[in-house]
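The methods section describes the discrete structure representation at length, but only in general terms. What matters is that the chain and its backbone geometry are given together, residue for residue. For illustration, here is how one protein appears when written out as sequence plus structure tokens:
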Amino acid sequence: MKTTRMKIESASTTSQRIGRINTTQVDSTTDAEIATQLAQDEAMATQDAAKFARRVRKRLGFSQAEFASRIDVSLETIRNWEQGKRSPTGAAKALLKVLDKAPEAALAALH
């Protein structure tokens, strides 16, 4: 096995600042700005979950009512997922992943 040694010049790393944060900006960020960003991140994650749930249902070719019946959840739950009002968690999230990757096997197991 060949070993290669490299010498890092300290002058070149300080000028590039790769992997560094702007401490001035971090220190000046207020709690309100952090809370706003957290809320935006949560909203984006909810929309991603909504898009995923809708995509899985549409790929299977089911209406919301058919999908709810097949996976044994209420129609209101499906609507809440797809509208981003709620996100699937736990077993429901796992089921959606299985339905996305192996729909035939998942539907056969649910039938």
Notes: The two ends are 56 Å apart (CA to CA). Helices lie at 10-16, 23-28, 31-60, 64-71, 75-83, 90-101, 103-110. The CA atoms of residues 29 and 84 lie 29 Å apart. The domain at 30-110 is CATH 1.10.260.40 (434 Repressor (Amino-terminal Domain)).
